[in-house]
Structure formats: structure tokens, C-alpha cells
Amino acid sequence: MTFSERRKVTHVTDYDYQQPAECAQQICILQPQEGLSMQAGPLRKGQKLVSHTLKIRPNPSTVQSNTDAFGNVVHHFEMNYPHDNLEVVSESEVEVSNFLHTGPIDDLISPSWNELVDQLRYQAGQAISDDYQFRFESKHVPVLDSLRDYGSLDFWPGRQVVHAGQALMQRIFREFNYQSGSTTIHTTVEEVMQSREGVCQDFAHVMLAVLRSLGLSARYVSGYMLTEPPPGQPKLLGADASHAWVSLWCGPDVGWVDFDPTNNQLPDTRYVTVAIGRDYADVPPMRGVVHGGGEHTLKVAVTVF
């Protein structure tokens, strides 16, 4: 059975500079991917991008776009004149579809994680699949014996990979506390493991590090999640935020399966995928270089309907 939902997302990024910036070069990854994860399998899902607009104020000197190695749409723009404010408004409408497994996930048949690790090992003369690149450590995701040991409590020999992935997601949810402002993008996985607190990107990095330390392929997913206001309360504009979760390669018959350790659930039609990468460093919503401007204040507002 297939379920589809339409989601509208508005993502506003506003920079106010203390003094005029002389010039700036920026990139942004804000356009949702299309057709992601449409492979065969009992948990397959996909997206159709209905529309996307990117409004930049003041008007940029140049705007270009390209698709990166992971299939993400990247916009580049320049401001070659003084400006004391920069506002970027991304508006998207996406149709998200899920083909849902008809029974509990515990009934889903998937290969053992040991089998997948063996399949993902390099063998001379054998073609390397695209999934292979997500096995290795990256800027924010280390591969460590201590993380492999942490994962071994859920990944015992012969256990099916989907069941083990779900168990790891549940354990991170139980053992780590969500604490806004407790970490920065420079906080390491080791520090999060020690403090047992962080935000969604930290929990995604922890789960990725454990999975890759075990020898599995797993990728970082950035996007949005629809949140509901308390009963009787109106939805507040701009109250949502960017979100991050994990996608685990579970073999050709099952495909990529998404896990959200922050909320202890498998992403469904409430989730909109913007980009995938090895970790956050591959897919920041915005980054760039500004000449001048002094100190600045940054405001980000996201609304998902």
C-alpha cells in the first residue's frame, strides 16, 4: 500500500551585518531532492518536487546551480557590492510517498548485518557500488573501536540488519538527552558520547559513527519534519527547524532504510529530504565567505505544512 502527502516548506535565513559587507560568496543546499530512494523494497519511499523557488534579497550579482556528487542541488551566488543585510527564502512544495510494510518491522526479513559487511568489503576484480563510499569515516564521523563495541550490544552475530538498526536507534533515543544549544557543529562524536546530550545532527553523527565502525554503509540525511502544535493551539509560523537523520544500506532487496534516533521512529510522509551526504559538512543549508561586515546576527525560521 502506498501513501502520499504533500508538504510545503518555507525556510528563511536572515543575516544582519554590524556594518556593510563589501562582498560575499555563498552556497546553499535548500532544494529538496527528487526521486530519492525509489528502489525496490518493502520500505521504499520517494519524493516528487512539485515546485521550488529561491528568493535572495538584495538581488545577487550572479546565481548558478549544479548537482553535486551525492545528487544534491547546490546554488551558488555572489554579492559584488556593499550590503548590510542578506535574506534567503527557500519555498518548496513536495509530494512524499511511502510504500509501507504491512506488518510490524520485526516481521520484515532482511539480511544479517554480518553478511552485508562481507558484501561491502573490497574484493579485487569486483565492481564497487555507490553504496561503498558511505562505509568510511568522514569529517564529523570517526571510525573507532569504542563505537564498534557500543554497537555490538545491538549488532550481535547473525542479527538481521533492519532489526539491529532499529534497536540502535532506540538505544540512542533512550540514552541521550536532546538539549538545544548544548553543542555546536564543532562538537565531536566522542564528546557527545561522553556528555550523552546534543541535538539531531549530533545523534545522527553518533549513529553513523557506530554503523560505520561496524563496517556498514550509512549516510547523513538533512531535511525537515512536520511537527504538530499542542491540541487546540495554532501552528506557529517559523517554529519548525531543519532536521537530520540516518539512512542505512540494508542490501539490494530492502534498500536504504531511514532511522531517526532523535525521535525514535522510521521517517515517513511527515519527512522531507533535502540532501544526503557523508555527514553535516557535505550538506549545510548555507555557507560562504563574507568580506567585511563585522559581527552579524543570524535568524533562521522554518515552517512545514
Which band does the percent of strand residues land in? 35-45%
Shape: globular
N-to-C terminal Cα separation, in Å? 23 Å
Low-confidence stretches: none
Number of domains: 1
Helix/strand-derived category reads: alpha+beta
Give, in order, the helices and strands: EEEEEHHHEHEHEEEEEE
Reported for the largest beta sheet, the result is: 7 strands, antiparallel
- Assigned CATH architecture: Roll
What's the gyration radius in Å? Answer: 20 Å
- Portion of residues within helices: 10-25%
CATH class call: Alpha Beta
The total strand number stands at 13
Topology record:
Blueprint: E1 2-31, E2 45-57, E3 62-67, E4 73-79, E5 83-99, H1 113-120, H2 145-151, H3 161-175, E6 177-178, H4 189-195, E7 197-198, H5 200-213, E8 218-225, E9 242-249, E10 256-259, E11 271-277, E12 286-292, E13 296-304
Parallel strand pairs: 6-7
Antiparallel strand pairs: 1-4, 1-5, 1-12, 1-13, 2-5, 3-4, 8-9, 8-11, 9-10
Helix pairs in contact: 2-5, 3-5, 4-5
Protein name: Transglutaminase family protein
Domain Transglutaminase-like: 192-263
Organism: Limnobacter thiooxidans
What's the gist of this structure?
With 305 residues, this protein is of the alpha+beta class.
Overview of this protein structure:
This protein has 305 residues and is of the alpha+beta class. The protein has a single domain (2-304), classed as C8orf32 fold. It contains 5 helices and 13 strands. The protein has helices at 113-120, 145-151, 161-175, 189-195, 200-213, and strands at 2-31, 45-57, 62-67, 73-79, 83-99, 177-178, 197-198, 218-225, 242-249, 256-259, 271-277, 286-292, 296-304. The strands form 3 sheets. Strands 1, 2, 3, 4, 5, 12 and 13 form a 7-stranded antiparallel beta sheet that branches. α3 packs across α5 (200-213) and α4 packs across α5. It starts with a strand and ends with a strand. 39% of the residues are buried.
